[in-house]
Write a structure and sequence with these properties.
Helices cover about 20% and strands about 40% of the residues. With about 140 residues, the chain is an alpha+beta fold. The chain is globular and about 45 Å long.
């Protein structure tokens, strides 16, 4: 497994994009995509020779990240890319990693399955694709 991106919850994607551009030199590198299952709007930011950042904004009041966003947001998850979700999840479960959201299509990943797991104090998103919706390519 390798780290694909880090997920940061923000109150506003537009403000979050500006902050990451102005403070850290990142650039928006994808379309804004609404994930209807997770009830978030997301956008990917990129910077040469750095990790990809995914900003998440709640799209509905009952989004799982709404309370976190209302408190200012912050680091939400680390996403690992693996070879195959259906192979990796049972391995992680045997290592006492808890599955919190089973595999389901993720609109930000061109409907490839995503899953969320919890290991100790770490929220993990697990994917098995490098595709990102509206991805503009490497910077």
């Amino acid at each position: 497994m390798v780290i694909d991106h880090i997920g940061i919850v923000v109150r506003s994607l537009e403000q979050g994009i500006r902050q990451w551009e102005e403070l850290f030199g990142y650039a928006r590198n994808s379309d804004i995509v609404t994930n209807t299952r997770q009830k978030v709007r997301v956008v990917f930011l990129n910077k040469k020779d750095s990790l990809t950042v995914k900003l998440l904004e709640p799209s509905e009041p009952d989004s799982s990240v709404s309370a976190f966003a209302s408190k200012g947001g912050g680091l939400h998850h680390i996403c690992f890319r693996c070879g195959d979700l259906n192979t990796e999840i049972p391995i992680l479960k045997r290592k006492r990693v808890r599955l919190i959201v089973p595999p389901q299509p993720g609109e930000a990943f061109c409907d490839h399955d995503i899953a969320f797991l919890f290991a100790g104090n770490l929220n993990i998103e697990l994917i098995d694709t490098s595709e990102k919706a509206g991805w503009l390519g490497p910077l």
